[in-house]
Specification:
The complex is a heterodimer. Chain A is mostly helical. Chain A is built from 20 helices and no strands. Helices cover 72% and strands 0% of the residues of chain A. The longest helix of chain B has 17 residues. Classes of the chains: A mainly alpha, B alpha+beta. Chains A and B meet through helix 1, helix 11 and helix 13 of A and helix 3 and helix 4 of B.
């Protein structure tokens, strides 16, 4: 099966090798966009020749040799126009330029497969794919393709958009990077922490997209969530001294631990308070706790991801909603609100306050948010306000809030939950 | 998706391994494991002790017969495993092809590891197993 060189087998090789191949070619040519094209051409060639000739003994070496040869061809073509390319073509041309790879592994591997460089290549690839000059959609698509080894088709399926859209995003992204003359390198230390924020954000976006149970093919989207976890794991190994990298991994593990319990038998979302905690994945919780402990051990304090992970940990270790250490949750939300102020964080803090100190204390936070007209288009604020008013036995006001929440809510399942609360009010 | 890569070998393979440099074996295994960790796919891995120290229970007769040592001279033995979290069976196969196992008769068997969610949830024994998995972090 695998040795016959079927598409699936080639896809498997590609998943494992693509980051290193694109990375090595980018280092070799100094041109990320070109490297990505060359790698895709090598993959296309494999799809033609492996099913015919069988998978080579060293598939990565084969792909790299083809990519490198195409690079030389490209430089030769361009050399007529440009002296610099002419010089490169001469330098790179030795031993290359034949038609079929005679010795797939040798020449290319010696030059490019430098084990000391691979980690830096993959890291540089992550930084370039998540570069701030790109739109969020472009960052996500580029990261999944060049670092994750997903095809444009797979990315399109996961995001429920046409393949052509994904391809256009990637093409435009590469042009943008070229126009901005973004170098292929791990950013210098002084820039790294700002740039790292974008990398972590992209991994988080991939995870949330994959974990949203809203629509589409469930399986593919869960694969996307697990790809994000894998990327986070790879990052913790590449950047072990960055607390937020561990914090993000902890958050993803602790969130994913709840996946088995978050939908009911007919697919409806089950809120945290109603989840069967016995269904939570204990080993994911343990891995999340371990990652959180590593984030703390780095010793520079937890960032926004680490703090969210710490909140998730409070829930993970509690046997029930009532047994949760809500005072601690409130404190962590306060820290999070100072670090990354957002009305959603304040709203969550209000929910935690209602659990720790009762609905009256929480209502004043929610009222402030309402007065500031924060979240005015979201159903979240009236949902929470309505719930607090229900608990305070102010039924008429609660009804008004819940009706507003129903009007603003565009998710059918969530709306059903709100409507049920309205019915319960009588 | 979880897949288990089961190492299997024959007497011949063992003989070859006994003659090999142990440091080299440790190095090649270590490099492979490091690759799996770098790729973010390794869940667990264990190697098994000498088969001659093992015991075999044979159910051919009633009651079963217990004998010391390995299965026999030519039968294949289970020597250790890697547990990987990968996106497809093909990816598991691709990793297996890179494992530093070599020599006549040396094999790696690849099997998917179903999650407990795939078993009937209303079965009391499955529920008991789930409870144990929860308590011991084996889910």
């Amino acid at each position: 099966m695998a040795d016959a060189g079927g598409r699936e087998a080639i896809a498997a090789v590609w998943r494992i090798e693509s980051a290193r191949i694109v990375g090595a070619l980018a280092r070799y040519t100094g041109d990320f966009a070109l490297a990505e094209d060359l790698a895709q051409e090598a993959l296309a060639e494999a799809l033609v020749s492996w099913p015919r000739d069988g998978v080579p003994r060293n598939p990565a070496g084969w792909l790299l040799t083809v990519g490198r040869r195409r690079a030389v061809d490209t430089f030769r073509r361009r050399s007529a126009l440009d002296d610099k390319y002419a010089a490169l073509a001469r330098d790179l041309g030795e031993g290359g330029g034949g038609s079929a790879p005679a010795d797939p592994a040798r020449a290319a591997e010696d030059v490019l497969w430098d084990p000391d460089q691979i980690d830096d290549d993959v890291l540089a690839l992550m930084f370039i794919a998540c570069h701030p000059v790109l739109s969020r959609e472009a960052r996500v698509a580029l990261t999944l393709r060049v670092v994750g080894g997903l095809t444009s088709d797979e990315i399109a399926k996961a995001f429920l958009v046409p393949t052509a859209t994904v391809q256009a995003r990637i093409t435009r992204a590469k042009k943008t990077l070229g126009a901005a003359r973004v170098p292929f390198e791990v950013p210098p230390a002084e820039e790294r922490s700002t740039r790292l924020g974008s990398v972590l954000n992209v991994v988080y976006l991939i995870f949330t997209e994959g974990s949203s149970a809203s629509s589409g093919n469930q399986l593919i989207r869960l694969d996307l969530a697990s790809e994000a976890q894998r990327l986070a794991r790879v990052l913790t190994r590449l950047m072990p001294n960055e607390p937020e990298v561990h914090g993000l991994l902890a958050l993803l593990e602790l969130t994913a631990a709840r996946f088995p319990a978050r939908t009911g038998s007919d697919g409806e979302p089950v809120l945290l308070e109603h989840q069967d905690r016995r269904r939570w994945d204990r080993s994911a919780i343990r891995r999340g706790q371990a990652a959180l402990a590593r984030a703390e051990r780095v010793g520079r304090g937890l960032g926004a991801y680490g703090l969210q992970a710490a909140i998730a940990e409070c829930h993970a270790v509690a046997e029930s909603v009532d047994a949760t250490n809500w005072e601690r949750v409130v404190l962590i939300y306060e820290a999070l609100g100072r670090l990354a102020p957002s009305p959603v964080v304040d709203l969550n803090r209000a929910v935690a306050v209602s659990m720790a100190q009762g609905p009256a204390a929480a209502l004043s936070i929610v009222d402030e948010l309402a007065a500031a007209e924060a979240l005015s288009n979201s159903h979240l604020l009236p949902s929470v306000r309505g719930e607090l008013l229900v608990r305070l036995k102010r039924a008429d006001e609660a009804r008004t809030e819940l009706e507003l929440a129903v009007r603003l809510c565009d998710n059918e399942r969530e709306r059903a939950v709100l409507e049920r609360k309205l019915t319960d009010l009588g | 998706m979880k897949y288990i890569l089961i190492m299997r070998a024959t007497d011949e393979t063992f003989k070859a391994y006994q003659d090999a440099d142990f440091d080299k074996i440790l190095e090649s295994m270590g490099r492979f494991n490091d690759e799996l960790i770098r790729a973010g796919v390794l869940v667990a891995a264990e190697g098994l002790d000498d088969a001659a120290e093992g015991v075999v229970v044979d159910y051919s007769s009633e009651p079963p017969v217990t004998t010391d040592g390995p299965y026999g001279e030519t039968k294949e033995l289970f020597n250790g495993f890697w547990l990987l979290n990968v996106s497809s069976k093909e990816e598991a196969v691709e990793w297996a092809k890179r494992a530093p196992l070599a020599g006549p008769g040396s094999k790696c068997e690849i099997r998917r590891v179903p999650s407990i969610d795939e078993f009937p949830q209303d079965n009391e024994w499955i529920q008991k197993e789930r409870a144990w998995r929860e308590a011991s972090g084996q889910l």
